[in-house]
Design the sequence.
């Protein structure tokens, strides 16, 4: 077994996550003690239908249990350091359809918890913990994730507002087990990206490439996608989260095959996400303009990744990406002026309008980034992470350069800014659409580890696509 498989063959470290969250809650129960109560996602039926809504486990519950069952709950008694998982009792009506559910004995072997009871015991357990702490404990729960009938009587207070932010912050720094899960999601997704590139050779429509990606994920153990794949050929690549994936790869007017496809896709492995973007040539060779843009974006990404280590200011890394974009676009003649003036006027935002990256974990856009979407500075407004990166965080580095008429035209029409863009040169680049290159990076004390192994060197991508 590889190291990753050896690590994830063990138990998900639910207990240490519970302790970490309890530590972060300490200011709210200082001088006394508390319990944490969380519920799994409920089984829900599709409206007017007897089929279940596709199941997605609630992340806070998974973080403190490692359990993927619906309709379960957990209690962590901070004072006695005891984590109890509650699983639904057998419903004989359901066994014929879904098979026997997990037993308490099996669950105890599978999960890093101290006890497993059935969900009918939640209220009596809450009450006995409250009484053991003499009515002084505080109960922490999430306001919108407590079923009717759950009783917090006997507690000094039921705090429904502190737990979410404590869990969100605790999730930023990953442990070795979580890094292994993220690596596994990345390894599977790298195989799927290669399958998608190979499928592009004979594909006639974006959807065939999407199908190849999803098929390879499922075949390799990632049944869920981190998010809907984005497969965007030609100018569709200029739409950051292009949702359609249904365009023909041949232009209906010119009958020419589009020059490139942007694929932003990642598989999810036991709730942990990969988020990877590649731009690939159709026909095995990048068109000249796409290749020029690809080189700039790759340089943006390489230099930004090189900057990463504990404590780096994320805004500085994002600003470096803009400076490299400006230099590259100046060299191509798309931009005019001095690098400093273009930076000060935020002209590169016309071509690189989104943030450099976001935390990654159980959510693709993971918790704890403290964005400021009200920022008046257009360069930083969409940055999903603000501040210094801690060791143990995992962040995406995903610079891009896009030729989106909707975004660029206001710059071109602005009396103040139009002088910075040479529209004659720009004309040649609309067909590039967009190039984004996205990897998932584990920030360490002295540097970083790149978890993403999907190919991105031009020659390697070209030879796979040929
Ligand atoms: N795939 C979504 C993103 O990169 O943020
Ligand atoms: Mn991303
Ligand atoms: Mn992405």
Sequence:
């Amino acid at each position: 077994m590889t190291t990753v498989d050896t690590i994830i063959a063990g138990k998900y470290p639910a207990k240490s996550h519970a302790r970490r969250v309890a530590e972060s809650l300490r200011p709210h129960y200082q001088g006394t003690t508390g319990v944490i109560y969380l519920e799994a996602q409920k089984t829900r039926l599709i409206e007017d239908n007897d089929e279940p809504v596709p199941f997605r486990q609630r992340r806070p519950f998974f973080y403190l249990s490692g359990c993927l069952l619906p309709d379960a709950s957990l209690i962590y008694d901070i004072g006695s350091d005891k984590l109890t998982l509650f699983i639904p009792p057998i419903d004989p009506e359901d066994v014929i359809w879904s098979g026997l559910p997990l037993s308490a004995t099996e669950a105890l072997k599978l999960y890093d918890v101290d006890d497993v009871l059935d969900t009918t015991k939640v209220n009596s357990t809450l009450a006995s913990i409250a009484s053991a702490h003499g009515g002084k404990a505080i109960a922490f729960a999430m306001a919108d994730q407590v079923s009717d009938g759950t009783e917090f009587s006997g507690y000094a207070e039921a705090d429904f507002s502190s737990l979410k932010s404590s869990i969100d912050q605790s999730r930023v720094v990953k442990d070795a087990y979580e890094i292994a899960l993220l690596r596994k999601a990345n390894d599977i997704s790298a195989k799927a990206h290669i399958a998608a590139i190979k499928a592009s050779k004979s594909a006639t429509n974006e959807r065939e490439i999407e199908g190849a990606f999803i098929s390879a994920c499922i075949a390799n153990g990632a049944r869920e996608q981190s998010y809907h794949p984005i497969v965007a050929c030609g100018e569709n690549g200029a739409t950051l989260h292009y949702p359609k994936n249904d365009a023909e790869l041949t232009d209906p007017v010119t009958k020419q095959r589009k020059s490139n496809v942007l694929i932003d896709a990642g598989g999810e492995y036991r709730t942990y996400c990969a988020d990877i973007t590649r731009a690939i040539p159709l026909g095995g060779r990048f068109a000249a303009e796409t290749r020029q843009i690809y080189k700039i974006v790759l340089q943006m990404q390489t230099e930004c990744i090189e900057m990463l280590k504990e404590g780096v200011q994320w805004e500085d890394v994002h600003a470096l990406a803009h400076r490299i974009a400006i230099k590259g676009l100046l060299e191509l003649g798309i931009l005019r002026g001095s690098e400093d003036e273009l930076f000060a006027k935020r002209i590169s935002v016309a071509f690189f309008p989104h943030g450099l990256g976001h935390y990654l974990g159980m959510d693709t856009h993971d918790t704890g980034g403290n964005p400021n979407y009200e920022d008046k500075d257009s360069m930083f407004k969409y940055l999903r992470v603000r501040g210094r990166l801690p060791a143990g965080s995992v962040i995406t580095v995903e610079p891009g350069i896009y030729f989106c008429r909707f975004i660029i035209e206001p710059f071109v029409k602005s009396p103040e800014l139009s002088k910075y863009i040479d529209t004659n040169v720009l004309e040649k680049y609309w067909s590039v659409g967009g190039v984004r290159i996205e990897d998932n990076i584990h920030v360490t004390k002295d540097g970083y580890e790149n978890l993403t192994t999907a190919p991105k060197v031009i020659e390697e991508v070209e030879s796979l696509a040929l």
Summary: The longest strand covers residues 34-39.
